[in-house]
Task: inverse folding
């Protein structure tokens, strides 16, 4: 199939954090078929989400650009529509395209991506030219650059090795070449020294371990994506953790009464997580810098809490998102968590379930962890780690203000934050705010 396109390019859709590619499972249309806007074009699968790709416009399928079972990077073209479709083709000189399908939620800044990322423009809308560039820019020889940038550099005699790219993965864009032309000639950038390779056998076993019994297990795509995301977060954010101990006595009393009523009406019992999540959302409303994205010269404070809940699945760690969790009661949050966790484990999440998170709760306590510092889920600035609840001796105040030792259920909450964006004192004030709400739990106020 020819990569040249002249109509509306339909890309592999953007499907949330850590999903970089998708596999075309089956086509529902063929070349020459007429389609209406919203018709299913094909089925795709990723390590996290299976979904159908719908036509962004009415028209005729003029080209199939990705065969069944072919893996396509996010933003890469999968087919082309002609006739009633709108938008520029993959060829052409436009560096920035007009808004189209697969561009995120209109007016929702949390759904926007960097310019050129996965075929999206600076407004988070689909850019056909950038989508095609995203595929071409995967080539390994020379600097990553869009075809338009390469053509202009060639015309003006600019060495791309002297140009700093501002696109995804440092891709050089048209604006970068034009800026370099205005700035005048510069010396080529020195190539980074390659790290010394670690001695290994033919199958990758470290030197000196050949006689140790072993098996080689291929790394799944989802584990590779998680690994990349974790390393990127560590390299991006200045991680720091502050912890507070919480006496859950008040929550236990409220939860016991609430669950009695729920069981009587046939509803499932609530775990402790909905109470912790509800207190967290209330605290985030007061500490808005914790519900934000840090961008160096500016911080974006989000107007609602889109709460990510880390879910342990057989495929790996997923973080589905509860939209506007701050507006929900504890039981409603509990129902949302149960729904998302079930669909995550059954691989039935859709892309919107994984996008737009503004703050995340990780719960290693569900598998017995007694401490819970975590890695920040980019592009957020903080994450709350919830370990297991422990029965511990605790100093309490009696009715006559005398101190005594009692056995209480204690939870050590860990707030890991980006020290570039948040000072330790402010992060600790947020942690104490969550603690205060849990220790003085009021069903009327929070449930």
Result:
């Amino acid at each position: 199939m020819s990569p040249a396109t002249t109509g509306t390019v339909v890309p592999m859709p953007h499907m949330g954090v850590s999903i970089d590619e998708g596999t075309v499972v089956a086509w529902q249309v063929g070349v020459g078929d007429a389609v209406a806007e919203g018709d299913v074009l094909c089925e795709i699968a990723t390590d996290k989400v299976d979904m159908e790709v719908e036509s962004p416009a009415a028209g005729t399928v003029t080209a199939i650009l990705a065969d069944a079972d072919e893996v396509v990077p996010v933003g890469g073209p999968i087919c082309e529509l002609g006739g009633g479709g709108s938008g520029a083709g993959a060829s052409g000189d436009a560096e920035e395209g007009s808004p189209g399908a697969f561009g995120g939620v209109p007016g929702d800044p949390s759904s926007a991506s960097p310019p050129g990322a996965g075929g999206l423009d600076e407004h988070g809308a689909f850019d056909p030219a950038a989508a095609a560039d995203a595929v071409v820019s995967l080539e390994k020889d020379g600097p990553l650059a869009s075809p338009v940038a390469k053509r202009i550099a060639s015309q003006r005699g600019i060495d791309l090795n002297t140009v700093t790219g501002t696109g995804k993965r440092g891709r050089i864009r048209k604006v970068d070449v034009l800026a370099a032309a205005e700035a005048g000639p510069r010396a080529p950038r020195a190539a980074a020294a390659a790290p010394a390779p670690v001695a290994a056998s033919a199958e990758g076993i470290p030197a000196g371990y050949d006689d140790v019994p072993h098996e080689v297990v291929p790394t799944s795509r989802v584990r590779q994506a998680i690994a990349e995301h974790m390393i990127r977060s560590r390299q991006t954010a200045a991680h720091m953790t502050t912890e507070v101990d919480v006496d859950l006595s008040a929550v236990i009393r409220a939860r016991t009464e609430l669950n009695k009523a729920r069981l009587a009406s046939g509803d499932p019992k609530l775990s402790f997580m909905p109470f912790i999540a509800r207190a967290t959302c209330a605290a985030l409303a007061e500490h808005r810098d914790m519900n934000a994205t840090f961008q160096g010269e500016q911080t974006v404070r989000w107007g609602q809490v889109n709460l990510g809940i880390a879910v342990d699945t057989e495929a790996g760690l997923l973080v589905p998102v509860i939209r506007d969790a701050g507006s929900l009661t504890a039981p409603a949050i509990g129902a949302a968590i149960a729904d998302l966790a079930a669909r995550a484990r059954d691989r039935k999440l859709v892309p919107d379930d994984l996008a737009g998170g503004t703050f995340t709760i990780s719960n290693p306590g569900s598998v017995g962890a007694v401490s819970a510092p975590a890695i920040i889920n980019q592009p957020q600035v903080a994450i709350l780690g919830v370990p297991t609840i422990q029965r511990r001796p605790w100093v309490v105040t009696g009715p006559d203000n005398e101190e005594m030792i009692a056995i209480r259920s204690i939870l050590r909450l860990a707030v890991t934050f980006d020290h570039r964006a948040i000072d330790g004192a402010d992060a600790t004030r947020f942690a104490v705010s969550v603690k205060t709400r849990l220790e003085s739990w009021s069903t009327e106020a929070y449930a």
Remarks:
- The chain has two domains: 8-136, 223-446.
- The two ends are 58 Å apart (CA to CA).
- The longest helix spans residues 221-236.
